[in-house]
Design goal:
By secondary structure, the protein is mostly beta strands. It has 1 helix and 6 strands; from the N terminus they run H-E-E-E-E-E-E. Strands 1, 2, 3, 4, 5 and 6 form a 6-stranded antiparallel β-sheet that branches. The chain is elongated, with a radius of gyration of 14 Å.
Length: 97
């Protein structure tokens, strides 16, 4: 379980929001007028009987719309919102349901 979390944290990073830590499970991408990425909450959700935990959507507002580099478009350390979505992530093998 820790290996999947550590691998995702290394590959995609993590953010803190509302006193919780979220490990990204994908690169952030532009979705209309904001950047978003899926994530899993660290230590907050117990896996179900099949080893799955909820997936969260992390959203960042575009702070610098005139930049040409997406890496400079947002305040990446301060997401605008985090909300749970309907999909689930398996902590043992990294699969999504």
């Amino acid at each position: 379980m820790k290996n999947v979390m550590e691998s995702m944290k290394k590959d995609y990073g993590y953010v803190e929001f509302g006193g919780e830590e979220y490990v990204l499970i994908q690169d952030a991408y532009l979705d209309g007028t904001e950047y978003v990425a899926d994530a899993i909450k660290v230590g907050g959700d117990e896996p179900d009987v099949d080893g799955y935990v909820p997936i969260y959507k992390v959203k960042w507002s575009i702070a610098y719309p005139d930049t040409e580099d997406a890496g400079d478009a947002c305040d990446w350390e301060n997401p605008a919102d985090v909300s749970v979505i309907g999909a689930k992530f398996n902590l043992e093998d990294g699969s999504v349901f």
